[in-house]
Design a protein that fits this description.
346 residues; alpha/beta
Length: 346
């Protein structure tokens, strides 16, 4: 059968104090040589919510790893796979999914993220500026893994849990040092004075954007484009998320670090759910003030409203709003595009 096979191969049993690692295998049975887009898939390790992990009751384990924001894929974003060949890489899932509570789990690849392109038609340049060429219509055959985690010693924490704990300690200290103020200016780590100024400006513009959005928030054309068909509960959730983002920008002590930590090539910024730390990477500086503000808003939506990255890019986000509005209202880039469309004059 012509298909792409995605297979997770795990051990049967793990212990909760250890890293839980397994293998991801992707096999090309399409009858031709292909390129596979690595971003958003386990082909690059667990950099995104690329797996569906469920416990024995069928409950989905929420992603709690890094949220990375990037653009302009280059050749390295693709895996070339000859017909009939297989690629295998190691994935560590305990850093991104909380699977340490003594249970049975199943894990499979999110097949909707797998994009396959004919090696003959592929023009990598088309991918620049987030423009996607049409992909090959392939059947993705998913083979999940099932494993058991036995409780032992101190539980392995996810990246999100670790950072939030660290920050809680830091924040508790800061509070007593500084007293309580209602408006908190962000702090900076690494970077130049100029970069601090640029970031402070973007932070303030992002706050302005949020205030304007909330003042004029309505069930109108732009709302429908980015958040899909109107229902009262979805509308209220988006509004409440914008309120959380605004309050975060205003009242939470955020730290922007420019040390390069957690940054990889092609990245704009990085954060995680519930964060007070946002990392700024190389491509952040290539944007205009307003584009930087919109990017910060994307990051703050993860940090303060716990949004996810289901899809990136305007076309995919518009399609998400049509097909799956319940996911669109939780997708960080949909917030960013809504803000760009309503707040940045064309
Ligand atoms: Zn994101």
């Amino acid at each position: 059968m012509k298909n792409i096979e995605c297979k997770i191969v795990s051990k049967k049993k793990y212990y909760s104090h250890q890293k839980i690692s397994m293998k991801f295998e992707i096999i090309n049975n399409t009858g031709q040589d292909v390129y596979i887009y690595k971003w958003g898939t386990p082909l690059e390790g667990i950099m995104t919510d690329c797996l569906t992990v469920k416990n024995s009751k069928g409950k989905k384990i929420e992603y709690d790893g890094l949220f990375i924001y990037r653009e302009k894929p280059d050749k390295k974003a693709f895996l070339f796979l000859k017909n009939g060949k297989k690629s295998i890489n190691e994935i560590e899932i305990s850093g991104a999914y909380n699977v340490s509570s003594g249970n049975k789990y199943s894990v499979e690849c999110n097949s909707r993220n797998i994009m396959v392109f004919s090696a003959v038609d592929m023009k990598i340049d088309d991918f620049k500026k987030r423009k996607m060429p049409s992909s090959l219509k392939t059947v993705i055959e998913n083979t999940p893994a099932v494993f058991e985690v036995v409780k032992k010693g101190k539980k392995k924490q996810t990246i999100g849990e670790n950072f939030r704990k660290e920050e809680k300690n830091k924040f508790a200290k800061k509070k007593s040092d500084r007293g309580l103020e209602s408006v908190k200016e962000p702090t900076f780590e690494g970077g130049t004075d100029e970069q601090h100024e640029i970031t402070l400006r973007a932070h303030r513009i992002a706050l302005d954007f949020c205030e304007n959005v909330l003042l004029n928030f309505a069930n109108d054309e732009l709302y429908n484009i980015w958040f899909g068909a109107h229902t009262d509960s979805r509308f209220q959730l988006v509004k409440s998320n914008f309120t959380k983002i605004k309050e975060g920008l205003e009242q939470t002590q955020f730290n922007y670090y420019m040390t390069g930590q957690n940054c990889i090539a092609g990245m704009v910024a990085v954060t995680y759910k519930g964060a007070t730390q946002i990392g700024l990477c190389d491509l952040f500086w290539e944007r205009s003030d307003e584009e930087r503000a919109a990017a910060l808003l994307h990051e703050h939506s993860h940090a303060s409203a716990w949004t996810l990255d289901y899809v990136y890019g305007s076309e995919s986000c518009e399609q998400l709003a049509i097909d799956r509005p319940d996911d669109a209202i939780k997708n960080a880039d949909n917030y960013e595009f809504y803000v760009e469309d309503t707040q940045i004059p064309a």
